[in-house]
Write a structure and sequence with these properties.
The protein has about 140 residues and is α+β, with helices and mostly antiparallel strands. The chain has one domain (about 1-125): Glutaredoxin (3-Layer(aba) Sandwich), CATH 3.40.30. It is about 45% helix and about 10% strand. The protein has helices spanning about 15-30, 45-55, 80-90, 90-100, 105-120, 120-125, 135, and strands at about 10, 40, 65, 75-80. The chain has a four-stranded mixed sheet, sandwiched between helices.
Length: about 140
């Protein structure tokens, strides 16, 4: 885990088509000045397994996870908090959407997130992430 330094990591379900689409969404919309500052890792991979061992509250979580070792107050965020943090990372209008989303109480946001997450396997067929060679360096095992 120390190999990534202080960079945030977005963890996703590696077997989920919606999750793969979401990672592609982030890669395509990252502003140039932030490219390379965010890493990606499947929840089922070595990094995801190590993170779950380090943070017992992640046991059983099959949600998107935002991990930021530099964030002392909340290094791990899940569900809608992770999604909103990811939008903030994209900046611009996406950051505005994140700010507006935070106005909605977490129980309501997470209920909507869960409603989508429980159907994610039927919403999109599994798809392979095909990162460019440059992007591939940002993916952790």
């Amino acid at each position: 885990m120390d190999s990534i330094g202080r960079s945030p990591v977005l963890l996703y379900d590696g077997a989920c088509g919606v999750c793969a689409w979401s990672v592609q969404f982030v890669l395509q919309r990252e502003p140039p000045h932030r490219r390379g500052s965010l890493h990606f890792a499947p929840l089922q991979g070595a990094f995801g397994t190590e993170l779950r061992a380090r943070y017992p509250e992640l046991e059983g979580v099959d949600s998107v996870v935002w991990f930021d070792p530099a964030d002392r107050s909340a290094p791990v965020r899940v569900r809608s908090d992770a999604a909103l943090r990811t939008l903030r990372h994209l900046g611009g209008l996406w950051a505005l959407a994140s700010t507006l989303g935070r106005c909605v109480p977490r129980p309501i946001r997470d209920a909507v997130y869960r409603a989508i997450a429980t159907r994610r396997m039927t919403l999109a067929a599994p798809r392979c992430l095909l990162p460019t060679p440059e992007e591939r360096q940002r993916f952790l095992p």
